[in-house]
Amino acid sequence: MKVMTIGLDLAKNVFQVHGVDGRGVAVLRKQLKRDQVAPFFARLEPCLIGVEACGGAHFWAVKLTALGHSVKMMAPQFVKPYVKTNKNDSLDAEAICEAVTRPNMRFVPVKSAEQQSVLSLHTAREAFVHARTAQANQIRGLLIEFGLVIPIGIRHVYERVPSLIEDGEVELPGLFRRLIDRLLQHLKELDRQVQELEHEIGQWHRTSEPSKRLETIPGIGPITASALVASAGDPHNFKNARQFAAWIGLVPHQNSSGGKTQLLGISKRGDVYLRTLLIHGGRALVQLARTRPDRADTWLGRLVARRHHNVAAVAMANKNARLAWALLSSGKAYQPGYTETAS
Predict the structure, then answer these.
(1) Which of 107, 128, 151, 175 has the fewest Cβ atoms within 10 angstroms?
(2) Residues with Cβ < 8 Å from 165, sequence gap 6 or more?
């Protein structure tokens, strides 16, 4: 019997395969080691393969597509309702096989190797930024134990700590001075790593026309632009701009029933990193709208006047996400004050 649809439960070493025929009857249940996966699917006739969007999913999607199969990835939370009883690898593969055939299922676009490389730079940079902040806070916390208070901010650590550990009038043991100096050197190394990764991201950004177009949107810089382009991929995977903003998690969470619509805060679904970058950009624009008189009569200026600045920042992030989708899908450049005219 010909296998039409397969659910593949991915793992590090042991993969589970569940296949059904055209009538949906199970005809294949098999466990494969990692080195057996590619040869097995190479011998199989082309079919539809469903996988969960997890670690290694993009690699296997590209590899299996090259073997002639049609691969579709789904978010794990959309697959979970199809697990009928207890959870194990075999039942997970069966649930994936059933979920991939649903006509209303939402699928995750497959990322190219270049997209994954750029996003890897962003992931590493974010980790170094967190480590840099943690190191600066550790230095401040240790100095407080000796009665020395450093204001919040890495800039103050760089400015004040060297003079403190070199000042002979400050009563600090030599052992502690050497420790703080070591931690300060580590902080500088982390900062250097962040700057080098930002430089590499900037180099890629300057070679990408879509990323350079997004940079022209106020509130979006090279970091945000490159992350949007690498994460979104083909903008036509999204039906419209609102769906793109919803994918990032910048639209209201709905809890409606009985014909009564109730909109709550933003859903916070999707990519946390993109949402954070866009909201930080929105906060910068909100600060300008609050301090510059020439921006008081703009859309954002009027919003800031009547709503909390955090609400305005999220609204600005939502607007920028929609603008980003519009530029990516149309291939046009950003035009301030652009109004579409009916033809």
Answers:
(1) 175
(2) 172, 177, 180, 181, 184
